[in-house]
Amino acid sequence: MTASVPSTELAARLAGSAWFRTAPAALQAQLTDAGRIARLAAGERLFTRGDADDGLYCVLGGLMRIGAASVSGKEALLAVIEPVNWFGEIALFDNRPRTHDAYAERDTELFHVPRTALAALLERTPAYWHSFGLLLTHKLRLAFEAIEEAALLPAAQRIARRLLLMAGGYGEAGALRRVINVPQEDLAMMLALSRQTINQVLKQFETHGALRLGYAEIEIVDARRLAEFAELEVRRD
Domains in the chain, please, with CATH? Predict the structure, then answer.
């Protein structure tokens, strides 16, 4: 379902994204004019791996899951995307099908810029490729860091780092969010750890006053204490 929002209100909401906020003003205006609001119900699929690219998205409200499922139905969860984060830029560069599935974890509001509009915009002003390249390389850096952490760091440090990353909007500038809306099962899938390991480590963090655990959410009570868990093994070295 699509809906309209006044352009000034939409621009203000999109400005919550550091990437959008630091893009050239003319690009911001053109993206705002070219896009539209789309709403998904909880559980509704946006696209599936192998689908043709239909453009770029930004989560304005709600939660999106990005992942894939095996033939047997086992899910690999790559990321849970919260406001105000963009996704879908890979296919913009290589013009190939979608790499993963994307569906709404809960009722979700998206800003969608269709591929035809993006192609026309970039044809008019090729210099804008640089801005989209920054969006892509930011995701690439996060992916490299996740691969390195999975290979080198113990579970507790990986969990602490991922919680801080999610609370910080995956590198978005702004205040650290206190509440992360993620079930422990999802956190386990994202980090390729068992549900039991996630639960044990989170309870350890809670005992030390860093977190408070709730239903399908984790509240950061003491960010500094959690950061100490994130750097514990590094400091020992």
Answer: 2-139 (2.60.120.10), 153-236 (1.10.10.10)
Rounded to 10°, the helix 25-34/115-124 angle is 150
Is 32 within 8 Å of 7 (Cβ atoms)? yes
CA dist 156 and 8 (Å) reads 43
Amino acid identity for residue 197 in this structure: T
Among 121, 111, 115, 119, residue whose Cα is nearest residue 36: 111
Q: Is residue 226 within 8 Å of 210, Cβ to Cβ?
A: yes
Q: What is the pTM for the complete model shown?
A: 0.84
Distance CA 81, CA 66 (A): 8
Residue pLDDT, tens place only, 132-154:
999 999 999 999 999 999 999 99
Task: Measure the CA angle with vertex 162, ends 231 and 135; round to 5°.
Answer: 115
- Residue 87: beta bridge partners? 57
| Helix, coil or strand: residue 139 | helix
